[in-house]
Amino acid sequence: MESALAEAAERSKRYDWTTATSLYKQALETQEHETEETGRLAELLASAYFKAAFQARTREEFKGRMELAESAYARTSGLFRRLNSEGASKKAQAKGLYASFWVSDNPEERRDIIEKSISLAEEAAQKLEGTKSIKALAETHRDILEYLVEANHLAKNLEHLKQTFETAVTVGDRAIEEFEEIADLEGLSESLNSTIVVLSSVGELILDKSKFDELAPKRLKLERRLNEVSRTVGTPKALALACEAAAFIASEKFELQKMLDLSRSGLRAAEETKDSYLMGRLSYMFQYSTNWSQSLTDDTEQIRVVVERCLAITPRVIEELKISMHGGYLDQAYSMYAESYITIATDLKVDAKDKQAFTCSRLLMLEGRAFTTETFPKISMPRTQQARQ
């Protein structure tokens, strides 16, 4: 068993989650009795299935792998329940629900699932408070933060968004503090990234300018800490998360070239993880900053070059995000895709392509609406940009 676990850990470091699942499964099968160690192995197996799903290259393959993760988390939850570890059981149950969230193609169903995941994880955190399971508590707070990030994309109104924002900031602070305490730099980098993204993207939407500016020192402090952690950890994922967070910070001041450089560097790092959602978010950020760089010039030829670059990157954005079927990002990606064709037909006045460009833009808008969740916010697009439209 020890050799299988050592190999699984090594494979995990290299993001070879498919092989890791086989090795964790092999180690789990050697367990004769249900113990806390058995529960830990079961949780590692479920987590590996979950991460392997995001390395799938088709939606169908993604769903198949995610369903394995959902089943594995259900078994883990049951195992912990039999061991009278109620907090760990609810934590795994919430993560299993979160796996089903990614399997669903229905926005309303996803909204219901994520709310249930948050509720269960909060119950898990309450059970874990005051126990010796500091790592489990930190992981649970990180999970709640992750669920809240997705809930933000699905918020129906401003009041709902404000509630999830306030909760996310509070939970994010707790997770950061706890991961700092136990020196878990991987969990720390994930929590720092999510907290920065919430403070920047959602904060711009719901806070007035004075309050948002008041929180600027906090965002910059967290960004500096994330950069330090990512350099210390040195893994592709940590570097990608640091670039993504820094790009959001750069977007606040409309620093497009910095956003381009950060998203490009982040995407290169993300490619090593083979995580389609991470690659999709960073390629979207690259598309976003490329698209808006045309606003910095009146020169027709320069605008043409920018539009062509945007048209070149967008299919990659859509391809990556369709795997996990992320409606929030896909909606915006398709909108910018359509806008590029509108620019060709209007601003660039390419007569021979006018009709074709307008037709393309209409088709893309219609296709994009298939992923739209009809939610209140567009949190993948910072408010500074919306104000410039």
Detail the topology: elements first, then pairings.
Layout (H helix, E strand, L loop, with lengths): L1 H12 L3 H13 L6 H18 L5 H24 L3 H18 L3 H22 L5 H20 L4 H25 L2 H22 L2 H6 L1 H18 L2 H16 L4 H18 L2 H17 L7 H25 L2 H19 L8 H16 L13 H6 L1
Could you walk me through the main structural features you see in this protein, from its secondary elements to its overall organization?
The chain is mainly α. Among the domains are: 1-106, Tetratricopeptide repeat domain (Serine Threonine Protein Phosphatase 5, Tetratricopeptide repeat, Alpha Horseshoe), CATH 1.25.40; 253-389. Helices cover 81% and strands 0% of the residues.
Q: How is this structure best summarized?
A:
This protein has 389 residues and is mainly alpha-helical.
Give descriptors for this structure.
single chain; 389 residues; mainly alpha; Serine Threonine Protein Phosphatase 5, Tetratricopeptide repeat; 81% helix; 0% strand; globular
Percentage of residues assigned to helices: over 70%
Globally, the shape reads: globular
Oligomeric assembly? single chain
Unreliable residue runs: 373-377, 383-389
Strand content: under 5%
Compute the CA-based radius of gyration.
21 Å
Structural class: mainly alpha
- Largest sheet, strands/sense/barrel: none
H/E series:
HHHHHHHHHHHHHHHHHH
